C-alpha cells in the first residue's frame, strides 16, 4: 500500500503563516517531512514556525515576498543550502482584491493581484524547477482556485490570475513530464480561512448564500486542501501531471 510518508523529504510551502498554507505545512511535517515555511508576514510566520517546533517538527521559516523574484530565488537557495534538496513544493501564496466593475478597475489593482497570484507562482515554480531539474525528481502543486475554472462578476483580474496559474501548470508539466518532475494545480472552493472570515466580516461574502451554492452545503476546511496537495505530491499520484484538481464541495460539477 502506498502511504503519504514524507520521511527524509524536504517540502516548501509559500503563504504558510496561516490558513491553507499553514495547514499544508503542518500536514507535510506530520508526515515526516522537513518543511520550509515562507510568508511575507514575518510575525505571523514566526508564530507558525514556533507552533510546529513545539510539536517536535523540523521546520524553517523564511520571510519571502513572492512578488519579488530576488526574494523567491533567495528562498529556494536557503532551502537547498540548509537541507540539500527540494522534493515537494506548494506555491500557495495569493491575495484577493475587492469586487469592482471591470470598466472601473485601476491598473494598480490589476498589477498588484497579478504580481502575487500569477507572477509569484511563476517565479516560485521557475526557481523550484531549477533545483528539481538538477535532482531529476520532485513534485510541485500550484494553488489556482475555483476562480481558475469559472468566472465571477466583479473579480475579472483575480480570475484572470487564477486561470493563468492553470496555464502555467499545464505547460510546465509538459516540459518536465519526462524529466522526473510532476506539476499539478489545486483549485480550492470557498475554504474556511482567515481571508474568507475577513470577507464575511466586511460583507464581501454572505455565508448563507455562499453555502447554498455548494452541493455539499458547507465551506471547505484547510486540511482538506492540504490532503489533496500531499496526495498530488506523493507516489500515490505518480502518473498524474498537468491537472487542475477542483477541491470545492462539488461546485464545478453543477
From TrEMBL:
Keyword Disulfide bond: no
Pfam families noted in UniProt: adh_short_C2 (PF13561)
Superkingdom: Bacteria
Annotated keywords: NAD, Oxidoreductase
GO molecular function terms noted in the UniProt entry: glucose 1-dehydrogenase [NAD(P)+] activity
Domain Ketoreductase: 9-199
EC number per UniProt: 1.1.1.47
Family according to the record: Belongs to the short-chain dehydrogenases/reductases (SDR) family.
Protein name (database record): Glucose 1-dehydrogenase
Amino acid at each position: 500500500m502506498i502511504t503519504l510518508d514524507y520521511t527524509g523529504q524536504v517540502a516548501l510551502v509559500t503563504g504558510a503563516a496561516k490558513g491553507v498554507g499553514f495547514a499544508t505545512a503542518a500536514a507535510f511535517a506530520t508526515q515526516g517531512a522537513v518543511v520550509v515555511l515562507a510568508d511575507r508576514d514575518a510575525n505571523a510566520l514566526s508564530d507558525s514556525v514556533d507552533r510546529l517546533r513545539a510539536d517536535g517538527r523540523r521546520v524553517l521559516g523564511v520571510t519571502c515576498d513572492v512578488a519579488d523574484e530576488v526574494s523567491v530565488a533567495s528562498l529556494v537557495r536557503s532551502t537547498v543550502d540548509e537541507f540539500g534538496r527540494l522534493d515537494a513544493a506548494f506555491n500557495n501564496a495569493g491575495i484577493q482584491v475587492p469586487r469592482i466593475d471591470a470598466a472601473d478597475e485601476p491598473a494598480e489593482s490589476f498589477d498588484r493581484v497579478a504580481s502575487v497570484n500569477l507572477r509569484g507562482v511563476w517565479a516560485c515554480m521557475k526557481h523550484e524547477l531549477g533545483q528539481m531539474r538538477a535532482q531529476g525528481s520532485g513534485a510541485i502543486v500550484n494553488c489556482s482556485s475555483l476562480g481558475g475554472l469559472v468566472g465571477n462578476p466583479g473579480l475579472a483580474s483575480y480570475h484572470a490570475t487564477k486561470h493563468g496559474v492553470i496555464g502555467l501548470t499545464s505547460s510546465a508539466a509538459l516540459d518536465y513530464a519526462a524529466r522526473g518532475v510532476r506539476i499539478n494545480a489545486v483549485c480550492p472552493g470557498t475554504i474556511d480561512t482567515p481571508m474568507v472570515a475577513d470577507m464575511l466580516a466586511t460583507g464581501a461574502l454572505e455565508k448563507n448564500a455562499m453555502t447554498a451554492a455548494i452541493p455539499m452545503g458547507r465551506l471547505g476546511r484547510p486540511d482538506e486542501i492540504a490532503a489533496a496537495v500531499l496526495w498530488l505530491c506523493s507516489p500515490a499520484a505518480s502518473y498524474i501531471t498537468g491537472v487542475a484538481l477542483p477541491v470545492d464541495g462539488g461546485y464545478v460539477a453543477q
